[in-house]
Task: structure prediction
Amino acid sequence: MTLKHIQEYRDPGISRKIVERIKEISQKQIRLMEVCGTHTTSIFRNGIRSLLPETISLLSGPGCPVCVTAQNEIDAFIELSKFDDVIITTFGDLMRVPGTHSSLQNQRANGRDIRMVYSTFDALEIARKNPEKKVVFLGVGFETTAPTIAASIITANKMNLDNFFVFSAHKVLPPALFTLMESREDTKIDGFLLPGHVSVIIGTKGYQPFFETYQVPCVVAGFEPVDILQAILMLVEQIETGKPKLANGYQRAVTFDGNRKAQTIMQEVFETADANWRGLGIIPLSGLKTRKEFAAFDAQQVFDIELGETEDPKGCACGEILLGLKTPPECPLYKRKCAPLQPIGPCMVSSEGTCAAYHRYHDI
Result:
């Protein structure tokens, strides 16, 4: 896509026309949830909430991969870093997420070998150059990142690397939508802005069982202001006419079938399993575990790491924020004890976290 095309999706004139149309047709009080951390950040950065009529409320859902990672998984990552012969590799957002008693950042300060990488293939290279060490990549994310991590395991297998491992804490998104709708009496969600990045992989086809079950308005959205406003307009039209649809508002990137090659790679290495989500609890078949054919690369099995029972930080409302039940200012810790330099919950740590977005943009 050229810079000219990108600018069209940021055009103030086009945005104003869409906002005017939204205001013309929006009559009902409605609550729309964006299920993507990148959407949350873009909505705040572009001041979209302030442009909408009072009839429309936007809720931030469980779309931040680091935020929905359960506390016991964070604790397991930290315990794994304490092995003397282990090098932990991870994306940057995980470093500062507080566990029950420590964080990866604190462990690194205490001398543990923990390295930030930009891709799993960086971790593979570290493993190749350090044959005497066991290199573990912490696999956190949705369907967006899972295929590349699966590809790294396939590559490690072909290279006969016996010192590369992945701790899979991946989540798949559609099952979480079912859980959100089952708690609808509390959340009162009238429509969903579906995530662009995940949808590139799974396609709109991936949401069909959810839509067919609940008949709730759904629109896949891109990430520029025009994308998001257009998706909101599409949702408002569906709600006002009483004609819910599963619509694709990001056709330049998302297809019906999605990326079949990525799906095949992901399914070759991983299989679905029950998973624990922060705020949402155990959701059946919402996680990805390593298949037995690749068990030699499964850090959780190789290191015999147990996921014990843990509690979220006392007073932290991150779980309720992920469900759309609270906004960050309603958390008793927000800006008092919990801030970007001293985070208590992951929603304040991650660049896609709702609390971080509120803190950075809400008071501007």
